[in-house]
Amino acid sequence: MPDTLVALYIFVLSCFIGYWVIWGVTPSLHTPLVALTNAISGIIIVGALLVTGLDSVGTVAELFGFIAVLLASINVFGGFLVTNRMLAMFKKKDK
Amino acid sequence: MEISANTQAVAYLISAILFILALKGLTHPASARRGNYLGIAGMAIAIIATLLGSEVQSYGFIIAGVAAGAVIGTVLASRVQMTAMPQLVAALHSFVGMAAVLVAIGTYLNHDAAGTLNPVMMGELSVGIIIGAITFSGSVVAFAKLQGLVSGAPVKFKGQHMLNAAMAVATILLGIHFGMTESMTSLVLMTLIAFVLGFTLIIPIGGADMPVIISMLNSYSGWAAAATGFTLGNLLLIIVGALVGFSGAILSFIMCRAMNRSIINVVFGGFGSESGGEVSAAGEAAQKGVKSASVDDAIYWMEDANKVIIVPGYGMAVAQAQHALKEMMELLEKRDVSVKFAIHPVAGRMPGHMNVLLAEADIPYDHVVEMDEINSEFPTADVTLVVGANDVVNPAAKSDSSSPIYGMPILEAAKSRQIYFLKRSMNPGYSGVDNLLFYQDNTSLIFGDAKDTIEGMVTALKGGGH
Known about the structure:
The complex is a heterodimer of chains A (about 100) and B (about 475). Chain A contains four helices and no strands. Chain A has about 100 residues and is mainly alpha-helical. Chain A has a domain at about 55-90. The longest helix of chain A is centred in the C-terminal third of the chain and has 31 residues, at about 60-90. Chain A is flat and about 60 Å long. In chain A, about 60% of the residues are buried. Chain B has a six-stranded parallel beta sheet with strand order 3-2-1-4-5-6. In chain B, β2 (about 340-345), α15 (about 355-360) and β3 form a beta-alpha-beta unit. In chain B, about 60% of the residues lie in helices and about 5% in strands.
């Protein structure tokens, strides 16, 4: 099976996982869900690292890669941190 | 230290599992924080495994980029106000979109230099660029609207949909041309048109439809990551992209269902506007046969009630009234009044917006109830207090088949014994539809800033009431 087809298999099956997992999320946590998926989509940083870290890169590609690493890192750090901040506020009645 | 491709693949698999468990954690507030930590672990593993792999050889730019991003991200996340969460999310979406575009172009440049381009890869990276660019400029527009940099009102012009369709076709044709000829000009043109398209797609959408738009752009940012995964042959990106893409798609669906509108209708509709003159509120109200009441009237009913339901809307967020509401809730509970908050799925500017604001004010989440659950409780509520919401309690959605909001699921506030609306003016909700609930015999309107009004109620309750 060619690599692209394997990738397609993985993609389609992941869509099913996404479908079932997300329907289970409680509506009260929809804002944290958006923030968390935002942080997780910072996974694009992996692509940015691969572009930037290539030994033989020309200056333009390296520059693009650098900006991509920067933007994706903002997402990763900002996304997880803000999600944590929000989730810390969701409390049960304790008094 | 360098790890083999196989070790890296296993690390990516672990990382993917951790991300799935992270999302799963959001099933309940009690497990949610653990979920977030699992997500952080997944991300750390993915980044470390990538850095240790054989493809990454130079680290200078990477360290600089991550360090700067960490500082900016940390500052943004720790300073942002909870009311500004939709803006932050829009900004972060735009970063993912831009990163996807840059990664795709960088990949093209690298492979071009190495002479290893092939049509499949170029097709994949075209898709990544188109989705990424639309995500970027669309999110920038959403950010500008939410932040109030531009008017939240829909911007419409003649031939808009035709123009968008033409641009969409053009990006696809240019992408195909690029794949066949490796033409740099096609690549650049395609990218530029996609940026413009993201812009023109979002400007016709009004501020109150933002919950759908935020969800949709959330979805796009996932698909952009997945497309990048196809380009790079990176399975982790594909898995995570699909998870995020579906998450956003499901949220968009839930938001549309809560408004009884199709996604097509939201994207092309340009529903209503938010502007409108603030004609002397009480005067106009009297004209229309609406009763207005004072803070004391409402307190008179609330302090002896068994059950009070509060319906918060975007107006509560604007007035920052959530902290005052919490104080009022405590004072009422001291008098053995049960207080609950009823949440409509599209209240606010993003999915779950009200829940976060109420949580910020330390209101326990078991007091905050979703629409389907609370609707059966309205008939037993002595008082329903509507704070900055409007369309979501309009009975016209059930009774008037000619109304634009007909069929939209609503909070059945109309069935409670007494209804008090806190309103700034007689302006209708974003749909521009008159609210039938205003004219009901047991409904009264209290005009003024929501926060001031509630603080007035708090003072009255502290003073011992009547």
